[in-house]
Design brief:
Length: 323
């Protein structure tokens, strides 16, 4: 199966490739690695690239995309590129300038998908993570329905082909869907999703509204960062995943990625390691049985690696709801 042709239709008529290349890396990783890795990913067949203003690498990722267009590997329309509106720019008047800044960094005319990174609004300004003297986050208060209206205008202006959200729970999605005068539904909700947090209820909700669920942290996380709860077990060492992987002569990572694709989830694979980037493409080379899928479903234990604890007191903190 040619992976480039495996796509899902979004509710606005555009198509998203089911396997995406994630570009987030901790701050200590040199930005040049994002350039190298993204270029390599495109060379071996990735067509869906996921980044964000927060990652501070859009210059490099854009350079990688443009270099692969320049050398004839791809055309711009072959690439599906996602950027995200960061929490300090959720006020409606900041939305278009934020997208325009991303486009300027990328040196692209449009993005394929622009999503609200999180419903938790933070104090506007130049700091990504504004904190007070005691180290607590400084919140803003924004109705994300107004943020959404500004995203709709960006779509109408042709700056982005599609618009969506990330880290929203079903009640927050419901709020946008039932908004008076809604012009465009979110095409997706990008959330943490893996066998230890399989999001089956949220997935069902999204499917019922023709919203695609996009999975980040699909392999769990071993990152040490202020966003990650480090007491969690390592997903890829799970004995059930390992046994299924062995049976198919694949790796646990590939089984975790394949699991998502078979349940209709668009999945992001994040690695800057060339061997693993290439390996992740093999997700199209095998199929899990219904028994495998059931066994993996049984691993769910509501473990959240990215629990964003610092935002827990915010009125829009998304993870206090069951789904």
């Amino acid at each position: 199966m040619d992976p480039k042709s495996q796509k899902v239709k979004l509710n606005d008529g555009h198509f998203i490739p089911v396997l995406g290349f994630g570009t987030y890396a901790p701050e200590e990783v040199p930005k040049s690695e994002a350039l190298e890795a993204t270029r390599f990913a495109i060379e071996i067949g990735f067509r869906h690239i996921d980044s964000a203003h927060l990652y501070q690498n859009e210059e490099q990722v854009g350079q990688a995309i443009r270099s692969k267009i320049a050398d004839g590997t791809v055309k711009r329309e072959d690439i599906f590129y996602t950027s995200k509106l960061w929490c300090t720019s959720l006020r409606p008047e900041f939305v278009r300038p934020a997208l325009e800044k991303s486009l300027k960094n990328l040196q692209l005319d449009y993005v394929d998908l622009y999503i609200i990174h999180s419903p938790v609004s933070l104090k506007p300004g130049n700091e990504f993570v504004p904190k007070d003297e005691s180290g607590k986050l400084i919140f803003d208060s924004v109705d994300f329905c107004h943020t959404w209206e500004a995203l709709e205008k960006c779509k109408d202006a042709g700056l982005t082909k599609s618009i969506g959200v990330s880290n929203f729970n079903h009640k927050q999605l419901e709020k946008i869907l039932s908004k008076p005068g809604l012009k465009y539904k979110p095409v997706c909700n990008q959330v943490e999703c893996h066998p230890y947090l399989n999001q089956s209820k949220l997935l069902e909700f999204c499917k019922s509204h023709d919203i695609v669920l996009v999975a980040y942290a699909a392999l769990g996380s071993q990152l040490l960062s202020e966003w990650v709860n480090s007491n969690n077990p390592v997903l890829l060492e799970d004995p059930v995943l390992s046994a299924i992987a062995k049976k198919h002569k694949q790796t646990p990572a590939l089984v975790a990625l394949r699991y998502q694709i078979q349940r209709g989830v668009v999945v992001l694979a994040k690695s800057f390691n060339k061997k693993r980037i290439k390996e992740n493409m093999q997700v199209f080379d095998f199929e899990l049985t219904p028994e495998d899928m059931k066994a993996i479903d049984g691993l769910n234990r509501n473990i959240r690696y990215y629990d964003f604890q610092q935002g827990i007191d915010h009125p829009e903190y998304p993870f206090s709801e069951e789904y």
